[in-house]
Design brief:
Distance between the termini: 137 Å
Helix content: 55-70%
Number of helices: 91
Number of strands: 0
Strand content: under 5%
Mean pLDDT: 75
Largest sheet: none
């Protein structure tokens, strides 16, 4: 007994193969339990049992066999690799189990069989069961039939193939055993339930009794599967609520997941070969003179075809040619009918294989319809109906249209009826717009025929077409017909019966919430159930659902929307409802002002109607086009109309009907210079709405045939050149060529030039063959075109930037009504439409005579050669040719395989010439020629193969590369070809397939080639194997990996490994699926969470709860994959806390391993899925291909800037995944991951994040392992990460991890760990040590075998010695004498570089938790006392903070010792030395400022002499007394590369860090490194403003805030007093700084402060304000002050009562400084735009309505406007470019008012002005200018200047004088004066003026110029009239510095000096605002004082002017 029970100690797998059956039973029972406990279907435990399952089912003991079957069933259900055992297990089941005596055994065998089918091994199962039907044991046969019956009933005919079973029907129904016959009858009945009548031909040969019995058993109704494959089960569950009957969606059609579909009987038939069975004299008898002999031959063929419903593919060319000859030329009517019937039977037996012969046969049948015999007509009808499925309407279109034009009415009628029948079996997508247009045009002609039969046939065809594609797509092509004809067409449309099943678009699956995963306690589904067991499957095993929603076919050129034309009455009625009467009447008013106002109101109404959807484009266009419409003679009104027209086009859906109402007028105005630009824009917008083809065709027709204005024609061709570059070109060039020929013959040279340029651009898209369309042009013209085309010969067309329907429409389509029709889906392919050659083509069919064909087929090779030469001559002379080739194709195909290689080569050349001559029309001959081409691939002669490849390439260029992949031609060639053929063909496929559009050909064509490809991978020939290996990836690009991998099951086991290796090698090269980088902008349809009210939080946060289901709209997901995840990459939730808790409680696997095992991958993936990470991101993270890992890292990097908080929430998951990647062998992933980690820790540093111990424990140990990587780049990246980790994690704990790294056997790792430890000791001191034991461990490595380890250990101990001194010797313990001597020597050498004191002074102290503490100056250390750190670090930078800078890893300098070493102490002293600024007793005055351009820019107070060589940066000035001073002798400094980080620390809530950063910045400025701050100025100012806001809003004692304010003010003062600084500060930063400074100054005292402190604070900030105003950029300062004043009017805070007063004082200070500024130093456009926004928000009416509000801000801004006008003059009106509508505010009228006022003042106040002859001359000048002519003085001056320009000596000076003249008189048009000059002289003057303007602009920039000469100053510019004032101001400033007295005359007193700040400081401290009259009275235009005499004179002048205007208007 003990021996028998010994087996219980054995493992389960050994029990299962034990010799005792009891042991095996016990083993099977344990296996069942084990299989149910394994959750992972790919777990390694399964592999132990893969080879044992067959023994389970073939156990010799019946009891054990039963248990073995149960175990096998559970194994197959749960194991992911169970499919590998299908063949051997099923053979065992068939042999041992399926017919077992025990019922339970049979049932279990059946369940295992069905389970194998469920896991998608149905093909192998069916094959084994069919083998079982051949066994001699009838029980086994019956059981196999029964199993197939059950499988078919449950899974359906899409899974269980019926075709292999039908062959067994007659055999098994005649079996001797009754059980077999009964089971077979049941199977036949089940087959009938699925395929219906298709089973009839297979039971026709049975006995009549059996047939009758079967038919009685046949039921009715369809069948539906009750069980699904694994890949279909999820769709079956999703479809269950929608389809209660259990049927699945139509998407399952490919794999049997849907209802039973009709099975074609033809597919179940076996092909029959008849060519070899034809009588030998068959063709001779057909040529016999006696009709009886001919009939005998046809009867023999008839007998063969009767017994062959499906024919074997072959060469039927001779047979088809013979039957066609019988039809066309036989005189016996009976034989013609018989020939037609046989031709139809032949087409029906070949089906798609008949395609090469279909076109010629249809043509012959159509021509023979002239016979009136009913028998002949009937036979021909049947023939063409049988032939049509082999071809399509496009291929036979030319023959059909020719038949429509035939004179014989019978041919017309029968052709139309044939078209009607053909349309009944045609898919609507195949009858596209091109075919509709062609066929309907031909049918309309037949509809007018005199023969009623023809008319009825045409009406029937039109009715059928209407039924097929819908009336909306046919009606536009039919047009208006009389009622009788329309009624007849409708009747036929109702009667028409569309027999083809229309392929409806697939419905998109509704997204459903994922079912909750079942826990361990969930009940397992029963074996064989529909519901699969919830097994975790790794990413590699996840398969894409077969029913994923496919993308809609891309339309290469969608049709424009159409709508019916509205009647005038409808237009009037709708216009009256939409527009007021004054608008409608005003549009046609005679007064242009009334028209202008009406157009403005029209535009406003159009905008409102567009938002409400109350109007359509046609209505608006027709109202706008009312006389005078777009032909308005007034330029302003015309531009307004065109602007309104463009708005309508951009914001409304425009149909071609609507566009035609304005198109001609727009084209007409294209030739007018004043509005040509807006007209071109309108045309572009119309092209986007209606399509480029429609706009170009209509515009060309109008411009070339009707309008004929050469200016319009030239501009139109210029616009077309631009338009086709923007849109691309996919239209027909026929009409363009016609109109281009007209333009080339135009007399105007501009038209010809524009046309030639346009043709050059067009050649980019059409190719050089475009020149062939202009053969009839003159040689000179043709040469010009050829030269222009040659310019673009080597260029590629630019990528289109526009497309039809791309413009977003604010008005919906419903606004136009339902009458606008969407473009009809033409089923276009993805590839662009080829541009056809539209030259007239020649029909060479009559030239291919019978004698020529006979010569081609002659036995004498010389005769054949001559015949081929004739054919070549015919094609060459007739090119381009039509596609009708007569008998030529069949004859040429025979010559392609000629035994004479020269003739074969000639035939290939002719075929290549045919493709070139026919163009795209050669497509219909592809199936005729390509089999022969592929046969030539296998020729033994290399030049034949090369010629065949060249020929195939030519045909693919003409017909499309996909043409060669249709009709199973490639399969046939590979199957029957020689090794040479297979190698050549596979190589061609490898080169060609990647460039073929994916969906341009049926995938089945390539799928059928895959088995042959696999066999070629193992071919004996090396060339075949190589070509097949190259071809694997192109096949995979089209089919996908999964589809090819499935076909591996059909291979033998030995072949699988070879093919699998080839597939795995090609798989990584597949394109990577892109990841969504940002979350969708659409708001989810879930209930908003409580925090959703905040916009920022809503943008950054993910879904609030897991239970909410985000349902994207169907419109946004149309055409996307079913499983695409558009959620954010990383969710922002708090799931990390739960993960930390689970880790602490040991609920999950500890993240601790030496090499990651599979369970760690699964754990991390499960955590990511439960945390809600993006599914696509997770899939890419765990993909087997490293490129997907790179894609995931890139996506995370892009997401970091926008979603940093989500990264922090999922930091542990990201770090864990990157640790797994550290174990990858691919260096690119590791390097990319290190780059990403650098960004991550930089972000964590900026967020002041503290790394949790849980996160560090799962990441840092593996980072320590990676520090020993062999690659330097990896090691450097890891060491840089350690430096970053020190900021966010405890340094002491990091030291512990590094000490653990010293235990490694890798010497490189020990070395790097020691170097990192040395860095920690140097930076943070001995406090980073974990204790004395650590130092003892470090000293132990001094005796290491590796030299680098010893050196690094010595450095560590030496560093510790410098920090702690002699006690280090005690801490290291006992070491050998040798090691001790090495240590002492290292300490001695190291002490020379830096002293111990210096090293200790640079140590950063650590806090209690081990993190670094920022240094604080000694005198301010009290700030850090009693100050709690803030709990939250918010980003408070103004507006948009710049992205965090990328940290740059700066390599540490290596200390070089020995005789060549440098003295670091001396270098440090030299670096630290700051130039001593000595103030001399008498300052040396630099008088070079006299050479500077006038007006001079603001020069700051420089105390030290300026070197002439220093241009961009001046030496530093002395720091104010309150600037920062160093707390110790070693002042902290900052490197230029660290400026960005230091600036960012200024805004830190930690005052210690902020003050340290400020001191570092001030030190950099004082040390002369201000230029390094140039790129960071805006960030510096924003950071200071953020810190000011923090101090202002955070309550704190005064003794803490006052020093902080002092530091900030000192840094700002130093910054603005440093030359070169402050120029890059933008408006937003300046606005923030000024606002915060004034808020602090204007704050009401909330806490009692000492008066001295408050006064000191005010004085400090006053000085800062003054420096900011003086040294800020001009434009930014003005914009910032205007914006602050704009915001201060309404947003007044009671806590800051004096804020607006102080802001106004700053404004007035700026106004006083403006007069000293350079005129060109201000961006007037930007300033005027800000003023425009102010006036728009607060117009004059606002202040009148609110008298309680002081209007001082309004008047102050008006003063600014007045000042700007005085500076710039009349040219200021040219600086309104940024204002979209000048009429929205009071700015534009006020500018004109100020200009008029200044002119009057100039006229009255300058009596002594004698520059141009006194006031009389000035008045005459103005009068002359107002009269529209040049005054005499200006005329003479201009003539003199132009004369000087013509001379070489004075041309430069004269150009400068001309520029100044234009500045003085901007209203003078000098080009009118120069219109008599030559074009070259005008061009020279224009370029010269541009150069002068550029030089003036450069001269006005603030920079030092020592070579500027006084004689170069042009005093002719009136802007320089006050240059003496500037020199006077500079003189007085110098006098003040020298201590001399200056004049006290207020009129000559200069503006506030830059160095004197007391005036503004005192004015800011005042508590009262100045009164209204305190503003300069000269600048106040709206004063209420009494009008002076001067004003009275101005008013009189205005009255006189008004009287003149009135009198002129009356005339």
């Amino acid at each position: 007994m003990e021996d028998e029970n010994e087996y219980k100690k054995l493992p389960t797998e050994e029990k299962c193969v034990h010799k005792l059956w009891k042991a095996r039973v016990a083993g099977y029972e344990e296996a069942i339990k084990l299989f149910n406990q394994i959750d992972d279907e790919k777990a390694p435990e399964w592999n132990k049992y893969l080879g044992l399952i067959k023994k389970f089912v073939t156990d010799s003991n019946a009891v054990a066999q039963e248990k073995g079957l149960e175990a096998a069933l559970v194994f197959v259900e749960n194991c992911g690799h169970a499919g590998k055992t299908t063949g051997e297990v099923m053979s065992g089941i068939v042999a041992k189990c399926i017919a077992a005596p025990k019922t339970k055994t049979k049932d279990l065998a059946l369940q295992v069989t069905l389970m194998y089918i469920e896991i998608e091994k149905h093909e192998v199962v069916e094959e084994e069961l069919l083998k079982g039907m051949e066994q001699k044991n009838p029980k086994v046969v019956a059981a196999c039939v029964s199993a197939l019956n059950t499988a078919l009933k449950q899974f359906g005919n899409k899974v269980i193939a019926i075709k292999p079973m039908v062959k067994k029907i007659p055999i098994l129904l005649a079996d001797r055993d009754k059980g077999v016959r009964d089971e077979m009858k049941a199977l036949v009945v089940e087959m009938h339930r699925w395929i219906g009548a298709a089973i009839e031909p297979h039971i026709a040969s049975l006995q009549a009794v059996v047939q009758q019995e079967l038919r009685e058993s046949f039921g009715t109704g369809g069948a539906a599967p009750t069980r699904y494959l694994r890949s279909q089960q999820h769709r079956a569950r999703d479809a269950a609520p929608d389809q209660p009957d259990g049927g699945a969606d139509d998407e399952d059609a490919e794999t049997g997941g849907g209802d039973s579909a009709e099975v074609d009987t033809f597919d179940l038939l076996d092909p029959v070969e008849i060519l070899s069975k034809l009588p030998k004299d068959f063709y001779d008898k057909l040529e016999a003179k006696k009709w009886q002999e001919r009939k005998e031959a046809l009867d023999s063929l008839d007998n063969l075809l009767k017994n062959a419903p499906k024919l074997e593919p072959g060469d039927y060319a001779d047979l088809v040619r013979a039957l066609k000859k019988v039809i066309t030329k036989d005189t016996n009517v009976m034989l013609v009918a018989l020939g037609g019937r046989l031709l139809g039977a032949l087409a029906g037996g070949l089906r798609a294989r008949f395609a090469p012969y279909a076109a010629v046969c249809v043509q012959a049948a159509l021509d023979k319809f002239k016979e009136r015999k009913p028998a002949v007509v009937t036979a021909l009808r049947d023939a063409v109906d049988a032939i049509y499925p082999c071809t399509n309407l496009e291929t036979i279109m030319e023959d059909m249209l020719a038949a429509f034009d035939n004179k014989n009415p019978s041919i017309k009628a029968e052709s139309a009826l044939f078209l009607a029948r053909a349309l009944c079996v045609t898919q609507p997508a195949a009858f596209n717009k091109k075919l509709i247009k062609a066929y309907v045009a031909g049918l309309l002609k037949l509809l007018e025929s005199a023969d009623p039969v023809v008319r009825d046939a045409a009406a029937e065809a039109l009715g059928t077409a209407t039924k097929l594609v819908g009336e909306k797509n046919i009606a536009p092509h039919i047009g208006k017909l009389d009622n009788l004809k329309e009624q007849k067409i409708k009747e036929f449309a109702e009667k028409a019966e569309i027999k083809v099943k229309v392929a409806a678009p697939k419905k998109e699956a509704k997204p459903k919430a994922a079912a909750p995963s079942s826990g361990k306690g969930d009940s397992k589904p029963a074996a064989g159930s529909v519901q699969p067991k919830p097994v975790k499957r790794p990413a590699s095993a996840a398969k894409k659902p077969a029913g994923a929603t496919k993308k809609a076919a891309a339309r290469s050129q969608p049709s424009p929307p159409r709508e019916p034309e509205m009647t005038p009455e409808e237009v009037d009625a709708k216009a009256e409802q939409l527009f007021p009467p004054d608008v409608i009447n005003g549009l046609a008013d005679a007064n242009w002002k009334c028209r202008l106002a009406a157009v403005a109101r029209f535009a406003g109404t159009a905008r409102a109607a567009g938002e409400g959807g109350a109007a359509g484009a046609q209505l608006l266009f027709r109202v706008l086009a009312r006389k005078p419409g777009l032909r308005d003679t007034n330029v302003q009104v015309l531009r307004a109309r065109l602007d309104a027209c463009k708005y309508i086009v951009d914001n409304y859906p425009v149909s071609t009907t609507a566009a035609d109402f304005v198109l001609q007028d727009i084209v007409t105005k294209l030739g007018e210079t004043s509005c040509s630009t807006i007209c071109a824009e309108c045309l572009t917008s119309l092209a986007e709405s209606c399509g480029l083809e429609h706009i170009i065709n209509e515009s060309l027709t109008f411009a070339m045939d009707s309008q004929k204005n050469p200016k319009v024609q030239a501009e139109l061709f210029n616009w077309m050149s631009i338009a086709i570059k923007e849109f691309g070109f996919t239209m027909n060039i026929k009409s363009i060529v016609v109109h281009s020929k007209k333009a080339l013959s135009a007399t105007n040279p501009n038209v010809r030039t524009a046309t030639i340029n346009f043709l050059g651009v067009l050649s980019l898209y059409v190719g050089p063959s475009l020149i062939n369309n202009f053969d009839s042009e003159k040689p000179a013209t043709k040469q010009l075109i050829s030269l222009e085309i040659d310019k673009y010969a080597n260029s590629t067309p630019p990528t289109p930037t526009r497309q039809m329907g791309r413009v977003s429409k604010s008005a919906s389509k419903a606004s136009v009504g339902d009458e606008i029709e969407d473009a009809f889906d033409e089923g276009a392919e993805d590839e662009p439409v080829a541009v056809d050659d539209n030259r007239p083509r020649t029909d060479i069919a009559p030239l291919i005579t019978d004698s020529l064909v006979a010569e081609i087929n002659d036995k004498n090779w010389k005769v054949r050669n001559e015949a081929l030469d004739k054919v070549k001559a015919i094609i060459t002379n007739s090119s381009p040719i039509k596609s009708t080739l007569g008998e030529l194709p069949a004859a040429l195909v025979a010559r392609l395989l000629d035994s004479n290689s020269k003739l074969a080569q000639s035939a290939l050349q002719i075929c290549e010439l045919l493709a070139t001559s026919m163009g795209s029309k050669c497509k219909q001959h592809v199936r005729t020629f390509f089999p022969a081409f592929f046969q030539a691939f296998g020729d033994s002669k290399q030049w034949i193969r090369a010629g065949a490849v060249s020929c195939v390439e030519a045909w693919c260029r003409a017909a499309g590369a996909h043409a060669a992949l249709e009709g199973e031609m490639v399969v046939d060639a590979l199957r029957a070809g020689s090794p040479v053929l297979r190698a050549q063909l596979l190589q061609w496929l490898a080169d060609k397939l990647p460039s073929v559009p994916p969906k341009s050909f049926p995938r089945e064509e390539l799928s059928s080639c895959v088995p042959l490809l696999f066999s070629c991978v193992e071919d004996r020939a090396a060339d075949v194997r190589k070509a097949a290996a190259d071809c694997v990836l192109p096949f995979m690009l089209h089919l996908g990996y999964e589809a090819m991998h499935k076909q591996l099951d059909k291979l033998k086991p030995g072949s699988k490994s070879v093919v699998q290796a080839a597939l795995d090698k090609a798989r990584p090269n597949l394109p990577v699926q892109p990841l969504p980088t940002k979350s969708k902008k659409e708001e989810p349809k879930a209930v908003k969470s409580a925090g959703a009210l905040k916009k920022e939080a809503e943008k950054k946060s993910g879904p609030a709860t897991k239970s909410k289901v985000v349902k994207p709209s169907s419109a946004s997901n149309r055409g996307k994959k079913e499983d695409e995840d558009c959620t954010p990459l990383l969710p922002n939730n708090n799931a990390k806390n739960q993960r930390i808790i689970d880790d602490q409680k040991l609920k999950v696997l500890k993240w601790n391993f030496t090499t990651p095992r599979e369970e760690f991958f699964e754990l991390l993936k499960e955590q990511m899925n439960s945390a809600g990470l993006n599914k696509q991101l997770v899939a890419n993270m765990f993909h087997s291909d490293f490129r997907y890992h790179l894609k995931a890292i890139e996506a995370l990097s892009e997401d970091l800037h926008d979603n940093g908080s989500a990264l922090v929430a999922n930091l542990d998951l990201v770090l864990k995944w990157l640790t797994l990647r550290f174990f990858d062998t691919n260096p690119s992933v590791i390097l990319k991951g290190l780059e990403y980690l650098t960004m991550v820790f930089q972000h964590l540093t900026e967020c002041d994040y503290t790394m949790a111990e849980y996160e560090a424990n799962c990441f840092i140990p593996y980072l320590v392992l990676k520090v020993g990587d062999p690659k330097d780049t990896v090691r450097n990246g890891v060491k840089a990460l350690f430096k970053q980790i020190c900021v966010v994690y405890s340094v002491t704990k990091l030291f512990g991890y590094l000490m653990e790294g010293l235990k490694s056997k890798n010497a490189r790792q020990r070395t790097e760990c020691l170097e990192c430890i040395n860095h920690l000791l140097e930076t943070y001191g001995s406090s980073a040590l974990a204790g004395g034991a650590a130092l003892r461990e470090l000293a132990r490595h001094i005796g290491d075998r590796d030299n680098a380890v010893r050196s690094a250990a010595l450095n560590c101990v030496a560093t510790a010695y410098f920090l702690d001194g002699e006690r280090v010797y005690k801490m290291i313990g006992q070491i050998s004498d040798k090691d001790l001597s090495l240590l002492e020597e290292r300490i001695k050498r190291a002490s020379k570089s830096r002293s111990a004191e210096e090293r200790r002074s640079m140590v950063v102290p650590l806090s209690a938790d081990g993190r670094p503490i920022q240094l604080v100056p000694e005198e301010e250390q009290d700030i850090a006392e009693d100050q709690a750190p803030p709990t939250e670090y918010e980003e408070e930078e103004i507006d948009e903070p710049p992205p965090p800078p990328q940290p740059r890893v700066v390599p540490e300098p290596r200390v070089i010792t020995g005789p060549f070493g440098l003295d670091p102490e001396l270098i440090a002293k030299l670096d630290a030395a700051v130039p001593i600024l000595r103030k001399p007793d008498l300052p040396e005055l630099d008088l070079k400022f006299l050479d500077e351009p006038v007006p001079a820019s603001t020069v700051r107070n420089v105390t030290a002499p300026v070197r002439p060589s220093m241009v961009t940066m001046s030496p530093p000035r002395h720091v104010s007394p309150h600037s920062l001073s160093a707390p110790s002798a070693h002042k902290p400094s900052v490197d230029d590369s660290q400026l960005a980080d230091t600036i960012h620390s200024i805004s830190s809530p930690d005052l210690n860090a902020a003050i340290r950063a400020l001191s570092l910045i001030s030190g950099a400025l004082v040390s002369g490194r201000g230029a390094a701050l140039g790129a960071h100025e805006a960030r510096l100012v924003s950071a200071v403003a953020a810190q000011l806001r923090r101090l202002r809003t955070t309550p704190a004692p005064a003794h803490q805030t006052l020093p902080a304010y002092k530091y900030l003010a000192g840094a700002l003062t130093t910054f603005y007093e440093t030359a070169g600084c402050g120029r890059q500060v933008g408006e937003s930063a300046l606005r923030s700084l000024l606002g915060e400074l004034l808020l602090v100054l204007g704050a009401a005292p909330t806490t009692p402060q000492p008066a001295a402190d408050a006064e000191r604070l005010v004085r400090i900030l006053n000085n800062v304000c003054v420096r900011v105003l003086e040294h800020s950029p001009r434009t930014a300062l003005l914009c910032a002050i205007v914006s602050l004043l704009h915001d201060s009017i309404v947003e007044s805070d009671p806590a800051y009562p004096r804020y607006q007063d102080l802001l106004l004082k700053c404004f007035w200070k700026t106004l006083k400084m403006i007069s000293t500024w350079d005129v060109n130093s201000i961006d007037y456009d930007a300033v005027l735009y800000k003023i425009h926004l102010f006036y728009k928000a607060y117009p004059n009416s606002y202040w009148k309505k609110n008298p309680e509000i002081s209007d001082t801000p309004y008047r102050t801004v008006k003063t600014l406007v007045h000042t700007l006008v005085k500076m710039k003059g009349a040219s200021i009106t040219n600086h309104l470019t940024q204002i979209p509508d000048v009429n929205e505010s009071d700015l534009y009228p006020y500018l004109h008012k100020v200009l008029k006022q200044l002119k009057l003042d100039e006229r009255k106040d300058n009596p002594s002005d004698n520059m141009n002859g006194g006031p009389h001359v000035v008045g005459s000048v103005n009068a002359a200018l107002s009269a529209g002519r040049l005054p005499r003085a200006v005329h003479e001056e201009l003539a003199l200047i132009l004369k000087r320009i013509g001379s070489k000596e004075h041309n430069r000076d004269a150009l400068a004088q001309l520029y100044d003249l234009r500045e003085r008189h901007p209203e003078v048009d000098i080009w009118t004066f120069m219109q008599g000059s030559s074009f070259y002289f005008r061009n020279y003057v224009e370029r010269g003026l541009k150069e002068v303007a550029e030089q003036r602009k450069m001269a006005s920039m603030p920079m030092y110029k020592s070579d500027y000469k006084a004689e170069n100053i042009d005093i002719s510019n009136e802007n320089d009239e006050k240059s003496h004032v500037i020199f006077l101001e500079k003189l007085r400033a110098l006098q003040a510095k020298a201590g001399l007295k200056t004049e006290s005359n207020p009129s000559s007193q200069p503006r506030t000096p830059i160095s004197d700040n007391r005036a503004l400081a005192e004015s800011i401290n005042e508590n009262t605002l100045p009164r209204a009259h305190s503003i300069d009275p000269q600048l106040e235009l709206h004063t209420t004082q009494a009008i002076s005499q001067k004003n009275e004179a101005a008013v009189d002048a205005l009255r006189l002017k008004l009287q003149q205007i009135k009198s002129s208007s009356k005339r």
